[in-house]
TrEMBL record:
Assigned EC number: 5.1.3.2
Keyword Ubl conjugation: no
Protein name according to UniProt: UDP-glucose 4-epimerase
Native source organism of the sequence: Terracoccus luteus
Primary enzyme class: isomerase
Source organism, top-level taxon: Bacteria
The organism's taxonomic lineage, starting at the top: Bacteria, Bacillati, Actinomycetota, Actinomycetes, Micrococcales
Pfam families to which the protein is assigned, alphabetical: Epimerase
Domain NAD-dependent epimerase/dehydratase: 5-230
InterPro entries: Epimerase_deHydtase, Lipid_A_modif_metabolic_enz, NAD(P)-bd_dom_sf
An annotated Gene Ontology molecular function: UDP-glucose 4-epimerase activity
Keywords: Isomerase
Amino acid sequence: MAKVVLVTGVSRHLGGLFARRLSLDPSIERILGVDVVPPRHSIGRADFVRADIRNPMIGRIMAQSGVDTVVHLNVIATPRDTGGRGTQKEINVIGTMQLLAACQKSESVQRLVVKSSAAVYGSSPRDPAMFSEDMNPKSMPRTGFGKDSVEVEGYVRGFSRRRPDVEITMLRFANIIGPNIRTAITDYFALPVVPVPAGFDARFQFVHEEDSIAAVMLATTGPSVGIVNVAGDGFLTVNQCAALVRRPILPVPMSAAGLIGTMVKRSGLADFSADQVSFLAFGRGLDTHRMREVLGFEPRWTTRETFLDFARGLRPVVPGVDAVGGVVTEAAGGTAAALGRVFERIQS
């Protein structure tokens, strides 16, 4: 059972939420919150330790404190939050390598929990309807956060071979959203006009930020379960999401989607990569049987409820767009004629 827990990334939104939630568990004797900058939010009764997981000093912190459980939440999804793609990759990949090296040398570490991502499955037209944990991607992520997540998981698997005595749980989350968290997907659906690959209507699954923390808590204090997909029930399509946030859509040919993504990214409105454009075209589905049957986790929020909780915080940017929300939702199957009727009503 976890007694002394080290949590990485506590100065970020999810890390702070988790530290506060963990603080409520009386069975946890001590919590060490590690990050390179002091948190601006409460981290409960966690002791903040200013340290960089890319530095071998993290090993000394573990040894001095007798850490038995490491919760690695500092795998960063958006380069905007770190000052650029280069720093993001260093933190995600080099930081994870150093953290695992420290865990390998530690005599006290008994459990490792890693926040991973469904981005490891990639997105392609050859994908299965639902990815289970034992499936490999049809097209490997080639850039950005998805590629980082694949490398991080590879290092964790290597660590598990070297330290078979350490219990390991990796949670592959669908896109985490909510009213307070900012990610590439929330930035995308907050755009005044949502560009979508023409002729496609990808399916999405979401995880509410509160459910993500509850799942990490269970992975920390419950049984070790290996790799588990985590997603809310149900699906939403791109067009349905756009209707719920009351945004008009702009169909863009796939040949130009990369250019549009680059322009949006440079504008500072949202982060885009080639893999994110593929995700917007082809989507992704996660099989969550292991989440329920092995991890024993039941999300409180469905995919639709999660997105609605996020959408409530956004204002419409087009006058009268609420009137066309139902039509846009019906157009989720997406024919050109249906899209034309939607835009005619928006302009009237």
